[in-house]
Give the backbone structure.
Amino acid sequence: MLYTSIDFDASSVRGTDGYFRVGRSEGGRWWLIDPDNRPMIYKGCNAVLRQVPGQAGEYLYFQWVEQRYGDDIASFIADAVAVLREAGFNGFGGWSMLFTPREGHRELGMPFVEIISSRELAGPERIVCGNIDVFDEHCWRRIDRRFQESWAELKDNRNLLGYFCDNECMYGQPMTDSAWTGRLSDLDNPPAAPTLLQEYLALPPDRAGHRAAWDWVLQRHDGQMARLARDWQAPFTDPAALRALTHEHRQILTSDGYSRDHVAFTRLYVREYYRRQHEIIRRYDPHHLIMTTRCPAPPEKIVLEEMHACFKDGLIDVLAMNCYRDRFFERIDEFYRVAPMPVLNGEFSWCSGHFLDWGRFLREERFSEEEKEQIRLRGRMALERAFTHPGLIGYTWFKWYSGREFTQDEYGLAKDQPFGAVVNNHGELNTFNAALFRQIHPRLEAIARGGIEPFYVEGLPDRVGQTI
């Protein structure tokens, strides 16, 4: 695709010359900048992979790959790339070539991304509120060792776009009000579970996070446990009592005194997480972009504010988010209003409950021609409109293959139904999705530049009979 010139605000460009970078145009739109200094929109596809030869297992798709390619990995990759390019994709998404003995896609000239599986590396016993214990040196040693072993060799690879710090982590926030400002009493609904600071304080005493959190919070209250309990309006006398309060009595701390400390601790926690991730990545790779964890939904305002502060301080470069909603643009904006930085979508599909009858989808039922047309229209509208957002630098389709999600022959081998894959369990191109990809993908750069308007249908009924 040929690009018209884009004038960048030089102060906004970050990354190493000759590798993928990000920058904001003088008009205020963020772009990826490829290694040859061309602005681009990333259009990736997740999980472009095959199994280790001889280990097809129960996945129908892997069984087909085994029969078709055997141990010829190079031919599989070449054929997959040809299908992707014909459909208008220009990059590999997360988990691509995950199980292959040699990840040959790294040398093919298409951008690819890597996901640092931080929680998996840390182990389940070192997870707090859906993320690693950032105060536990064991976690960081394991991440450091894995990075050195698996990704340090990529430091000079011009095809690598960058690293996601993890996948779909949580941050121990109230999760009841996206406009939460830091006072739990301001929420329309109280928290349904203990928030981040309380969970850390209620950890077993031998955990690193327990010790770090207690040292931190007591320092803020003159080192006095009695004053801390009084300031928080909570009945505990020592760490064991607070642990019992949390796990046995199920009491959730909600006072404004607690909330002030919780907010400050959350900021400390987010910064420590990205400071340490940045430290490890830059120890072995000075060039490539560092992206946040792929957020499944917008974290609370406090988390996004600190992410943005980390961005301004150079610890991270891109905010990553997953989205399966027909209001894709609005979802991006929930992030961007608080953290105005480049946004890369890590997962999107119009094969979700926001576009179709999810119960019928899970039962592997076919959709009628009328239903398919409605899904096509809503899917195209959602994706094209998303690229009018000034923060969005790319999206990632979920995913390449069907896997074991669909096992009925009449659906698993169908080529014209809206299931979430580029190819079905028999390696055949899904014509429903392919037709949309061919319509949409060539238009996204022009939409992002403002050269053409996104596709729109007035009064289109949504999946429950309302109108958009």
About this structure: The chain has a mean pLDDT of 92. The chain has 16 helices and 13 strands. The longest strand covers residues 392-397. Residues 310 and 316 are 6 Å apart (CA to CA).
